C-alpha cells in the first residue's frame, strides 16, 4: 500500500515507458555546427549563445560544453566548416573549366552561384544568408586571431584554385577583385545585374595564362 508521500513522488515522475529516449546521433557535433551557422545568420555572432544553439538544434544544453570548450571554440569550428565548404565549391568550379573556355567566365559563374544559392535569396541581395555569414566571419576574424586563421586558409585555397588559370600575382589580385565586387553586389539596393557582373569580371580581371600548346 502506498503512503501519501509515495503518491506525491510518483506523481512527479513520468512512467518509464513514456520517457523520451534521444536517438543515437553520431553526427550530432556536425549538426550543432550547421545549426550554429543558422543562428548566426539570424542573430549575428553577438546574439548567438549556447542556449539559443542548443534550443535550435534540439539538444541538451550540456551537449554544447561536451563538444566545445566555449563560444570561441564553437564559432571557430562553425566558420571552419563554412569556409571549407565554400573552398571546396570554388576549387571544384575552377578544376572543371574545360579547354577553350575563358576561365574569367568560370570565375564569374562560380561567384554568382555563391550570391544566389539559398532558398531565402531575394532579387536585391542574391543570397542574404551567405552574405550575412561572410560579414559575420570577417568581423569576428578582425578581432580573433584564431578565426583569422580560418579566413587566411580560405583565401589561400581560393588563390590556389585561381592559379590553375592565372599567374600567382594575378590570382591574388583577382581574389581581391571578386571579393570587392561581391560585397558591392550584396550591399547595393539595386537588383543584381548578372550580365554586368560577368562583364566587370571580364573587363577588370587580369589576363589568364595562355593554354598549353598541344603537340
From TrEMBL:
Residue ranges of domain HTH tetR-type in the record: 26-86
DNA-binding region coordinates: 49-68
Comp. bias intervals (Low complexity): 7-18
Short name of one Pfam family: TetR_N
Record keyword Zinc-finger present: no
Record carries keyword DNA-binding: yes
Region Disordered: start-end pairs: 1-22
UniProt keyword annotations, A-Z: DNA-binding, Transcription, Transcription regulation
Name this polypeptide is given: TetR family transcriptional regulator
Organism: Kineococcus endophyticus
